[in-house]
Write a structure and sequence with these properties.
Elements: H1 9-24, H2 29-36, H3 40-47, H4 55-64, H5 70-81, H6 92-95, H7 97-107, E1 111-116, H8 127-137, H9 143-157, E2 167-173, H10 184-197, E3 203-208, E4 223-227, E5 235-238, E6 245-247, H11 250-266, H12 281-291
Parallel strand pairs: 1-2, 2-3
Antiparallel strand pairs: 1-4, 4-5, 5-6
Helix pairs in contact: 2-3, 4-5, 8-9, 10-12
């Protein structure tokens, strides 16, 4: 079998984690290969995600590297045994590899932390809100294609009702609700939907108002932190116009985690608290529904 020319995000991340374990053990690719009966090039291809690493080989490598983290090993085994196929496969010809990588990552996530300042997070959008976004992004996109975009996003939202329930904590800047590319009725319905889903036990929504009393030092791009069963596999997805980034190294993950905690701390009380005074997310949401 030939080498992969476009490994998936899961395949690349698996290789990256094996490389981290090897480097922590102080071994070169050649030394690691000799200990498990592989050539140096083969180990390098595994670490780059260009070739598969069967479960037996993976367990041999992690044992060679002295990894005693059983949870991490089992998650890596699940990653190497995954086929990459799921409900999202039907959409790949239309949406491409990025959609596959995002859907596959969400399927194994234990918790989401999302910050948005321009849009409502995709997992919380109504179908009409989605259509408004997709239509304004490209006025030439045929309606049937937009319907498929909407269907894909609605399928992604099903992750919030799977067992065990993953937690979603979203911080949404007030600016997202003042964008005129979505008409007023759609936006009011979207606000009502946010209030409704905030009652779910695994959904926590906070609004970050214009009149925040402390500067939150928001990052320059929206992002989502995806937690995993093994903390070492936590991933940050940074939304960018050309090429969104999947970050897994400890330093950027730690920075975005701190950024999110800071923004949450200066945001209003969560919608689920049902506090309706001016200094709460529910109070701001109700005000927005009135003025829009």
């Amino acid at each position: 079998m030939g080498l992969r020319t476009q490994p998936s995000q899961r395949q690349k991340r698996l290789g990256q984690e094996l490389r981290k374990l090897r480097e922590a053990a102080g071994l070169t690719t050649a030394e690691a290969g000799r200990r498990v009966g592989l050539g140096q090039a083969h180990v390098s291809h595994i670490e780059a995600g260009r070739t598969a690493c069967p479960e037996e080989r993976l367990r041999a490598l992690t044992k060679t590297y002295g990894c005693r983290n059983a949870t991490l090993v089992e998650v890596l085994v699940a990653m190497t045994n995954a086929t990459g196929k799921g409900w999202w496969t039907a959409y790949l010809s239309l949406l491409g590899d990025r959609a596959r990588d995002l859907a596959e990552l969400e399927a194994t996530t234990t918790a989401f932390r999302s910050f948005q300042w321009l849009y409502v997070p995709g997992l919380l959008q109504t179908p009409d809100y989605m259509r408004a976004l997709f239509s304004t992004w490209s006025h030439e996109t045929p309606p049937d294609i937009i319907d498929q975009y909407v269907d894909f996003r609605l399928q992604r939202q099903q992750v919030l009702s799977r067992e065990p329930l993953p937690n979603l904590h979203a911080v949404i800047h007030e600016a997202a609700f003042h964008m005129h590319f979505v008409d007023r009725k759609i936006m009011r319905d979207q606000l009502a939907h946010l209030e409704e889903v905030s009652h779910l036990p695994n959904v926590n929504i906070q609004l970050l108002p214009f009149k925040v009393e402390r500067h939150p030092a928001t990052p320059g791009a929206p992002f989502t932190i995806y937690d995993a069963a093994a903390p070492e596999l936590r991933t940050v997805y940074v939304e960018q116009p050309i090429t969104p980034l999947f970050l897994g190294d400890p330093e950027p993950v730690g920075q975005f985690t701190s950024d999110f905690a800071r923004m949450s701390s200066v945001s209003l009380a969560p919608l689920r608290s049902q506090e309706s005074h001016e200094g709460s997310s529910l109070g701001l949401l109700q005000y927005l529904r009135y003025v829009l």
